[in-house]
Specification:
globular; alpha/beta; Rossmann fold; 16 helices; about 425 residues; 2 domains; seven-stranded parallel sheet; about 40% helix
């Protein structure tokens, strides 16, 4: 099978940012897949803004043209999966082939490799003279903490196909752990994911929160009496659960924005007080976020960009109190601090109770919500992520000088990798 590589005409022109010295001038950026503009793609947009001349690699690229503008119009080098049957609509079905696919990318001409990974991107193969920094949205959730939910949702909990699926996921876990050794610096998107990285990979990670467009998401002219749930409708987001809860509260209105496999389930659960709008353009989503009384969120999310976008609009949040939201939402009886509140179990009864508690709470101050969201702006992401990448590059250069080019730091630990690990520990302490 032929390896996929960047165009030969201009492999990777000199980047706008050359981290830590002249050697790191050719940059490759690797992303899992490009099918829609969601949270991971917001991170990718900022990375490409830092290194606009980088070459982009991804398993499949079916990003609509109207969303590609956010990625500076850049086209990606894709894998063989791009050309397989039904790859556009069923690319996730090829998950077992994705480790093989990313390993075929020939990145040998690049000095610096940056992966944006929630599945397989961090598994690209790099050499000892290259620096690989991976921004980890999460270890592969299909194979780790969401394994049983994935199997149940796909009808693979039992039977011969189920055991085959379990064997494939077991292989993915082994591959996922092994390929982490090829990454010089892991960067987690939250402290929550940092803990997951420690548990799954046995490594520490630096932490840089993902970027939120707090300039575009801003308070509007007024509020209306409805709640908002906006999300991709995939099983772990639990959108149908929110719809079921509001079906038990006919006096309260819910607007649901988003599309995906769970749309039919949400539609079936909806009462007359629930409106499902499907997928809206960005301007439509912004308008609803600005006018909503509260934003309801039932996922255990790695970070939860939509939760911060809502707060940037001055809209308080009612969220399931696990995962990244514990770092982005302030649940406090003090109205000078509160930006939302949590429910502690994912059930209809818990959401109904949380809505009642929300309405009894002292009024939430939109300016307090927005001030909290401003901590997560894009400028902060660019500054902190660039600093992390430059630190990893400096560590590699220092190790090369110390080693005299023999790849050993004198303690038998392997210079370049050890230096990057030390730099990672220093960033964690910072």
């Amino acid at each position: 099978m032929a390896a996929e590589r960047a165009p030969e005409t201009e492999p990777a022109r000199e980047s706008a940012h050359r981290p830590a010295g002249r050697r790191f001038s050719r940059v490759a950026v690797v992303h899992d897949w490009l099918t829609t503009y969601a949270g991971a793609e917001r991170v990718l947009e900022q990375i490409l803004g830092l290194w606009p001349q980088a070459d982009l690699f991804t398993v499949v690229d079916f990003l609509p043209d109207d969303e590609r503008r956010a990625l500076h119009g850049k086209r990606a080098v894709t894998s063989f999966i791009q050309h397989l049957p039904r790859a556009r609509s069923a690319y996730r079905a090829y998950l077992p082939l994705m480790p093989l696919a990313v390993e075929q990318f020939d990145l040998s001409v690049y000095d610096l490799v940056i992966s944006s990974s929630h599945a397989v991107a961090k598994g690209v193969i790099t050499g000892p003279d290259q620096v690989h920094v991976s921004y980890v949205h999460s270890p592969i959730r299909y194979a780790w903490d969401l394994q049983h939910e994935y199997l149940n949702g796909a009808g693979l909990a039992r039977g011969a196909k189920g055991w085959l699926a379990r064997a494939i996921l077991h292989y993915l876990r082994i591959w996922d752990q092994r390929t982490t050794h090829g990454v010089d610096l892991l960067v987690a998107n939250s402290r929550f994911i940092g803990r997951r990285i420690r548990k799954v990979y046995g490594r520490e990670a630096a932490m840089v929160y993902p970027p939120v467009d707090v300039e575009r998401f801003c308070p509007g002219p007024g509020r209306e009496d409805f709640y908002l749930c906006a999300s991709r409708m995939v099983p772990y987001k639990r959108v149908p659960l929110v719809v079921e809860a509001f079906a038990q509260m006919p006096a309260r209105r819910l607007v649901v924005i988003g599309d995906g496999p769970d749309f039919a389930r949400a539609q079936a659960a909806a009462g007359p007080n629930v409106v499902l709008l499907g997928r809206l353009p960005a301007a439509g989503l912004l308008g609803y976020m600005q006018r909503a009384r509260g934003f309801v969120f039932a996922a255990e999310e790695d970070f939860g960009i939509a939760v911060v976008e809502a707060q940037a609009c001055g809209t308080p949040v009612i969220a399931y109190g696990r995962g990244g939201v514990l770092e982005t939402v302030i649940d406090s009886p003090d109205p000078a601090r509160a930006t939302g509140l949590f429910f502690r179990e994912r059930s209809v009864a818990a959401i109904v109770e949380a809505i009642g508690r929300f309405e009894r709470h002292a009024p939430f101050d939109p300016q307090v919500c927005r001030r909290n969201a401003l901590r997560f702006g894009a400028a902060r992401f660019r500054r902190e992520f660039l600093s992390a990448v430059e630190a990893a590059c400096r560590a590699s250069e220092e190790d090369e000088r110390d080693d005299g080019g023999d790849g050993d730091d004198g303690n038998g630990t392997g210079g370049g990798r050890a230096g990057a690990r030390r730099e990672s520990a220093a960033l964690m302490e910072a």
